[in-house]
Design a protein that fits this description.
mainly alpha, single chain, elongated, 4 helices
């Protein structure tokens, strides 16, 4: 089995983390311990859970970690909507990335669940 680094969904999630980090530099300084911190942690959680699930011993565990990654992805989306609605920045690119990654996670989970 290939390493988690070879998973396209992990690669896309890593790209999104970099994008989120760039976006958060545009947020007001007083959000450093609020939105900035929360967005960054949630974004980092996505590829981290994909990698951790890949390293587990079963497809069932991978599916569970993909579910956790999806939950973190939805948290990121919610926070990005908040960033947009508060007028801090335009997270259009990051929101598109979220949708693409969500589809990939759903597809990967479905393929592993179908095998079991």
């Amino acid at each position: 089995m290939a390493g988690f680094e070879d998973l396209l969904v992990w690669q896309k999630a890593m790209a999104m983390v970099r994008s989120v980090y760039g976006l958060t530099t545009k947020l007001p300084p007083d959000e450093r311990f609020g939105l900035v911190s929360q967005l960054r942690r949630a974004a980092v959680s996505i590829p981290s859970n994909i990698a951790e699930g890949h390293g587990r011993s079963s497809d069932r565990e991978l599916s569970r970690f993909l579910s956790i990654a999806l939950g973190s992805l939805r948290e990121v989306q919610t926070l990005l909507y908040l960033v947009r609605d508060l007028g801090f920045a335009d997270p259009a690119t990051e929101l598109k990335q979220c949708e693409e990654i969500a589809k990939m996670i759903f597809g990967l989970r479905k393929s592993f669940l179908a095998d079991n």
